[in-house]
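>> received
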Amino acid sequence: MSKDSLTDLNLKLKDFAVRRDWEQFHSPKNLAMAISGEAGELLEHFQWLTQQQSQEIEAKKKQEVAYEMADILIYLLRLSEQLDIDLVSAAYEKMAINEKRYPADKVKGDFRRADEYD
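>> returned
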């Protein structure tokens, strides 16, 4: 099993949940709510920091941030499995949409939303 494969990770996560009889709790609604909660915990690490400080977090805090990000990824993968969504394919499709919505020659250095451009 490769440590670089989302598919392998998802299989390991499913096995983890099945062996603990947690599948019953992993409904799309519950997993979406868990993602939101973990995203809030991730945000707490950056609350009140300046832009510069947020880019230079100390090693201990960086490890804590990594674990919060991992929690989000775990729940996101479980949600994708429950809904039978290929996240990698969806990400490539979304990037293709964003390429059209935000052409580099038109939006470079500008932060506005797609519907705010001429």
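>> The radius of gyration is 18 Å.
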